[in-house]
Amino acid sequence: MAPKGKKDKSKDDKGDNSDDISNNLNLLAENLCGNQSLAKQQLTLTRGEAAYYVWRHAISSEGKRQEIAKKFTCIPYLLQLVGGGDTFSQHVAIGCLQFLAHSEDLRELIITRGYGDKSLGNVVKLLEGDHDRTKVRSAALLYQVCQVPEIAVLMRDYLPAIISCLEPTESQWAGSEDTRAFAAGILRSFSHCDFSPELVNLLPEGTNVRAQLLEEGALPPILNLMITGNPMAQ
After folding, report:
1. Alpha carbon distances (Å) from 65 to 4, 18, 73, 107
2. Which alpha helices (DSSP H) does the chain contain, by range?
3. pTM higher than the cut 0.85
4. Contacts of 31 (CB under 8 A, 6+ apart)
5. Tens digits of per-residue pLDDT, 168-179?
């Protein structure tokens, strides 16, 4: 899903070339920020285009993921796009964050470097959209960050949206089944919070995690997934 028109873009008045920028994380971070007054060079990419190229770097290697997250501090800007970008920008930003979350030590950083609960809420909102590929990447990201128990416990506030993703859809895209699987995995991580006194203390007093899942209607769609043999629902 490459930015449109990149092949035909020639050098700008200052001699910057989009191909050079796409391979320079310093310049990409400035374009991703999108604030010319803070940039050392002329910004020549939209924020969405910059996110697309950062995503390509994130896919390439573990070392690049560490650079993007820690050296170039791109995470807050990616989360801004998730919360307020256009369809293309949201898709590439969530895709980049999903690949950053492949690195276990970056999962909690994605939330703490962002806006905490608000970051999670913005990702959950994409689950409620109608762009299938963005939905599956959003579900995958939430599943990955929920491997951190302190983040999994925060899913309590978003159970209706997660549970709705368990329902079969009319989409013909095969990846939609992955969205259901990741949603089941998120709920499984949340259900494990009952077994940790430290996590129970983070919930409102008297909360019974598994009882809440039943009250929210999680059981029927999970049983349907189990019938299909989906391993996430086991």
Report:
1. 25, 21, 11, 11
2. 18-22, 25-33, 47-60, 62-66, 75-84, 87-100, 104-112, 117-127, 132-145, 149-152, 159-164, 176-191, 197-200, 209-215, 219-227
3. no
4. 21, 39, 43, 44, 45, 46, 47, 49, 50
5. 877 777 778 899
